[in-house]
């Protein structure tokens, strides 16, 4: 049996408000390359991935095509599409333009340190589980706060995971879930697994990512990122 068709949707339509820079954070340079370059490179080089859909801010498509996709030769990028106001709008835009055969890897363009091994582990799981997300067990104690910022609960740390991307699904399952989601009012979702959990009740399997697979969100993440780039991408 041949390998299933695997599409990556790379999300780069955010405004990076927590980073606080004028340039949207995915285009900021880290060790001489735009942050978005690193995850695109890993998906480009992964043998599992057949094609990439890149979702950028509306009006940024040509900038991305010239300065990132063409410049670095990311030949697997088949479409560059505009995203929407919230992350789930951007994902929905990507899912809508995709055929229904195989699996989709939804990945944050602001998460440069995904590896080929992580993509492989997720691919292995999704073939039997149909829905899986990459994450890692938390290292800190997590507390739930009440509305006065007093502790209301301390969940058992052994069962808490930090969720990363890629989040990987059978295409039909996640497309159907997003179609249903978009019909609702007052949507409060922060990742794709939540959409599948809420709408389909299909179980979502956790797959180990890595503690380096961080999202670049605030300025201090850039400093850590510079260190990781040196050990990941420049050691070869
Ligand atoms: N994203 C997107 N479309 C949106 C919002 C986010 O494609 N409307 C993407 C971001 O570009 C990023 C990923 O989703 O790669 C994770 O989002 P996040 O880290 O929250 O990025 P931003 O929304 O850009 O940052 P902030 O929340 O600080 O504004
Ligand atoms: Mg955001």
How would you portray this structure in words?
- The protein is α/β, with parallel strands linked by helices.
- Helices cover 34% and strands 23% of the residues.
- The protein contains 7 helices and 11 strands.
- The strands form 3 sheets. It has a 7-stranded mixed β-sheet with strand order 5-4-1-6-10-7-11, sandwiched between helices. The protein has a two-stranded antiparallel sheet with strand order 2-3. A two-stranded antiparallel sheet has the order 8-9.
- A hairpin with a 2-residue loop joins strand 2 and strand 3.
- Cytidine-5'-triphosphate binds next to strand 1 and helix 3.
Write down the overall mean pLDDT: 96
Runs with pLDDT <50, length 5+?
none
User: What share of the residues lie within helices?
Assistant: 25-40%
Number of helices: 7
What is the CA-based Rg, rounded? 18 Å
Q: Which term fits the overall shape?
A: globular
Helix-strand pattern:
EEEHEHEHEHEEEEHHEH
Ends: how far apart? 34 Å
Structural key phrases:
236 residues, alpha/beta, two-stranded antiparallel ribbon, 7 helices, globular, binds cytidine-5'-triphosphate, binds magnesium ion
List the helices and strands and how they pair.
Elements: E1 6-12, E2 29-30, E3 33-34, H1 35-45, E4 51-56, H2 61-70, E5 77-82, H3 87-96, E6 103-108, H4 116-129, E7 131-137, E8 144-145, E9 151-153, E10 161-170, H5 171-182, H6 192-200, E11 205-208, H7 219-232
Parallel strand pairs: 1-4, 1-6, 4-5, 7-11
Antiparallel strand pairs: 2-3, 6-10, 7-10, 8-9
In short:
With 236 residues, the protein is of the alpha/beta class. The chain is built from seven helices and eleven strands.
